[in-house]
Amino acid sequence: MTKFDFPSDLCKVSHVPMRKIFAIGLVAILAAGLSLRPAEAAASPDSGQVALAVARWLEQGHYSRQKLDNAMSEKLLTTYLESITLDYNRMYFIQADVDEFQKKFGDNLGEYIFRGDLSPAHEIYARFRQRVEDRVASNKKLAQKKYDFARNESVQVNRQKASWPKDIAEADKLWKDRVEAELLQEHLNEFPLRPPEQTVTKRYDQALRNVRETDSDDVVSAFLTALAQAYDPHSEYMSKEESDNFDITMKLSLVGVGAVLRSDDGYARVMELVPGGPADLDGRLKENDRIAAVAQGSGEFEDVVDMKLDKVVEKIRGKKGSLVRLQVLPGDAVDPSKSQIIEITRDVVKLKESEAKAEVLDVEGADGQKTRIGWITLPLFYANMNGGGPAKSTTEDIAALLGRLKQEDIQGLVIDLRKDGGGSLEEAINLTGLFIPKGPVVQAKGPDGKITVASDTNPEIAYPGPMVVVMNRLSASASEIFAAALQDYGRAVIVGDERSFGKGTVQTVLDIGKVMPFFSLGAADAGRLKMTIQKFYRVLGGSTQLKGVESDVVLPSRTDNVEIGEGSLKNRLEYDEVAPVKITPFASPLFLDELRAHSQARIAADPEFLYISEDMKRLRERLETNAVSINEKDRRKELADDKARKELRKKERAERGPLVHAQVWQLTLDDIRSKREKLETVAYERERDKLHFYDPEEAAAEKREGPKPPEPDPVRNETLRIIEDLVALTRQNKTASTLAN
User: Fold this and answer.
1) How many structural domains does the chain have?
2) Catalytic residue among 232, 397, 488, 725
3) Range of 31's domain?
4) Which of 217, 344, 540, 590 counts the most CB atoms within 10 A of its CB?
5) pLDDT tens readout for residues 554-563
């Protein structure tokens, strides 16, 4: 049984802004999966049988062993109503809707599921769809009205903890204020793409299109995910398509054309071409092109305008070597008759952005001396979770990078796990083994209370030198296992946010079809259940659940926010401890007191950390206020203050110059595979996080003004200073020990 601890969707469950992005603008990678199944040859699985299998598995296999009783039925209803698919911000349903659902289904949803009856899920969604239909129609009328934006009122931003609107009249008032706030936001837009009322109307048209495109299978999938997440936030039902996408994420490879799509005004718009993929090598498909129709080989074209994005993706996915034809409307074309036909042969596409990568940095200290540091960035603990395709291993990749870094004579090493949401449990254990002698790495407890210990059995150490691990509150799961073990062994200094995410649970992926009756139609496409089966514990006994991994040296950052992390999630499991196991700590000291003292002195004098402190203070105030003004005068002052602050910082940065002087060479796995002798020199400060979310306003601004220069990364800067200190202190300690002997 393969175990992993990959969060359900760290971005989606952690904070509302990202949830909104996922809800409004779905982004997918083309051809993400296996071969196409002809519609006439595929039998849809019985949704009732699937639901029954999911419920039974949760009852019998989930860590909590909680029965789907009356209390759990009530929790399921609440989880479903507040899911991202339905009314997570409590704006569409009114209290009468919720009361009706609670009276009708509140304590008996489990009974419906065990009868194979999912009519409650469809009935609730039908009401939601009607509420959206009505609301969009009225909101589009509101968007055409004239407003003077002079009212001294505000709109509540996050309503997840608010009461449901008591009636339609109260909902009307909430939406009237919200539409006015949206119009004001567009009215204040310095570089608008279209008039405010058109932008807002277009936004609601897209919201309505999303709801109308939700079919029966989507409703079932959302309901079963709500069922799983009623048990804990990291259990999840995955449909066949979602399951394929999960495998792709873990393997970092897919069979397809290699493009990133976004649903935009009814079209599947090309947002990015994966470097080295078939579309990129072909050269005809361009960013911003729109796909209007898809054909398999020499078959007929099928219109995909206004089709759900995941359905478009499914039509483009296929076997390696097969042909797909795309009818494409160029991004700069207005007339649909200007479309062109592009034929592309599908092939394996490597998703290299999530691979481990490294840098060699010669960092100049205050005394002018240079320290050579190796910096490894790991976005994900990837592996071949389900077999198939070329082997992929985080541990093997990092071992290869370490081999080359040692050839470059690095004096210290940094492992960057910021925003690493986890992945394979086995890879976390094996990776830990590269840095410690053999011994226990992590403990796990199952629902029966039995404790198992996973150990590294290889006595060899791939890198024995000074080491720092940098994390933030978006570092979760496998990241926390790895960092916690190194911290408990005294092997590495942990730096970054006050603590990491706090996900201390282990999941497994189960094929639903395997427990459905053998005669069930479509059992092979019944999807999978990602289910929490264990909690994991550090070798010293504490859990990372809720508590996370606390940094040895805390660095101020914009992600150090209590709204991010396990503690902010509903239905989470609680913190507890188990007995410690015996380990042999690493021999070399970490000098934590000295490192903290030196770091605190630098932070106090670093203007970039001062900026962060100011920003975090404002963020906390906004979260507490949870409101945005709909008074134009007030909003203009806020915008003017923000702009002035950014301009002042830009000026101050230019005057003082870079705070870290370093020569940097980039090291990729491709460099190692090709045995490249001379590494590519790159700039120290550059954009490292490429978002797959298209913002037309930012794109227009970049086209007009050019790309924005990257902002300094003070956490990176200070981490380098900390590893410099650790290298120097380690060297002094060895010298002192040698002289003493």
Assistant:
1) 2
2) 488
3) 3-243
4) 344
5) 999 999 988 8
